[in-house]
Design a protein that fits this description.
Structural class: alpha+beta
Distance between the termini: 45 Å
Shape: globular
Mean pLDDT: 87
Radius of gyration: 20 Å
Low-confidence stretches: 1-9
Strand order of the largest sheet: 1-4-5-8
Helix content: 40-55%
Largest sheet: 4 strands, mixed
Number of strands: 8
Order of helices and strands: HHHHHHEEEEEEEEHHHHHHH
Number of helices: 13
Length: 378
């Protein structure tokens, strides 16, 4: 009798190839009809709510939401297969990515019944897009230094402060926001809570942050006495740090950490001027990172939270993505965002996006600190 953990040589459950082929057929049809233009870093910069709804219609958004919550109840490994194909195709998936990847699991683990009934069905339909409010100006990846404050008021909270690099907030229907609701304490991790800020909301201003290529994905979100009802507190007051760090295992370990430039690498490997040794080295690195990411997906399926392993995958994955860009730049092709040549355009997109690679999901320096503490060397 087979089980979920009867894996094929690629590290995924037997039987997932049919699912993979379904996704490939869908993507081929969408490309042929002009449904999307493949791009680098599509899970960060490729926001298309309409495309997200098409995926939702096929059951490919919120795949791991259990059946008792109205979801399909599929495994993280099946979601991994769908994610791999979407990323490898450069499909525009960033609009729903945060909702699918970490908001839905957070709601299932910490949400009230009312929150689950309000948000999970809408996430499944691709009709509720969440942004995630963590980073703040002058704080980098030091989440413990959160200064955005939530003050108690009748029936809820008043939020004052600023979040920055808030991906997709201009498309979002809600922002999952980490705020300070109490004193920091000796560890600085105390007194943090998560509040669901539904949009639009009085006292919330969303300001665009333009990327190097002129695109708009990141935002600054300013809260000025923005009211959030008690019903939108996620989990327990003061437990925000533990909740967020649990969610980060989902954010840091997925295939997006090594497949942002997968299409660019594929095109490079097919070129006559590609260095075969470099292609072999990058392919081997990619396969190793993929196996590590699959292993973490297995742990998540078992209910574990492998935060240290996820930090390692994120760190190594972002370094790999930089190596892909460096290898491709050794060709004679000039990067050009407006070029009709997909190779030149994808290279330009990868270069302009690369400064954020080691920042999003936690800087590599912060992640190495996490790893060092786990090894007992810090």
């Amino acid at each position: 009798m087979s089980s979920l953990f009867d894996l094929d040589p690629g590290g995924l459950p037997a039987g997932t190839e049919r699912l993979r082929q379904e996704v490939r057929d869908f993507l081929d049809a969408e490309r042929a009809s002009g449904g999307f233009t493949p791009m680098s870093d599509s899970w960060v910069f490729g926001g298309d709510p309409q495309f997200s709804r098409k995926l939702a219609e096929r059951g490919w958004v919120g795949m791991t939401i259990p059946k008792k919550y109205g979801g399909p109840g599929r495994s993280p490994l099946e979601r991994f297969v769908v994610a791999e194909e979407l990323l490898a195709a450069g499909a525009p998936i960033s609009a729903h990515w945060g909702s699918d990847r970490q908001i839905a699991p957070g709601l299932i683990t910490h949400g009230t019944k009312d929150q689950q009934e309000r948000f999970l069905p809408a996430i499944l339909r691709g009709e509720c897009l969440f942004a995630i409010g963590l980073s703040e100006p002058d704080s980098g990846s030091d989440l413990a230094s959160v200064r955005t404050k939530a003050t108690r008021t009748e029936g809820g909270w008043l939020i004052d402060g600023t979040k920055i690099w808030t991906s997709g907030a201009h498309h979002a229907h809600a922002v999952m926001t980490l705020v300070r609701t109490g004193p920091a304490g000796d560890s600085r991790h105390e007194g943090l809570s998560q509040l669901i800020v539904e949009l639009p909301c009085d006292g919330v201003e969303i300001r665009p942050i333009r990327s190097l290529n002129g695109g708009h994905h990141f935002n600054e979100v300013v809260f000025t006495s923005a009211f959030v009802p008690d019903a939108n507190l996620l989990g327990e007051i003061g437990n925000g740090w533990a909740q967020v760090t649990g969610e980060l295992a989902w954010e840091r370990s997925g295939p997006e950490r090594m497949l942002s430039n997968a299409l660019l690498l594929r095109l490079y490997a097919a070129r006559e001027d590609a260095d075969p040794r470099t292609v072999g080295r990058l392919t081997a690195r990619l396969w190793s990172l993929r196996q590590a990411s699959v292993a973490i997906a297995v742990q998540l399926t078992k209910g574990h939270a492998p935060d240290v392993a996820a930090a390692m995958v994120k760190d190594l994955g972002t370094l790999f993505e930089r190596e892909v860009i460096d290898a491709v730049r050794a060709t004679a092709v000039e990067p050009d965002l407006t070029s009709d040549d997909p190779f030149a355009r994808l290279l330009a997109e990868a270069i302009t996006a690369s400064p954020t690679n080691t920042l999003r999901g936690g800087t590599n320096e912060i992640l190495r600190g996490v790893i060092a503490r786990a090894l007992g060397v810090r």
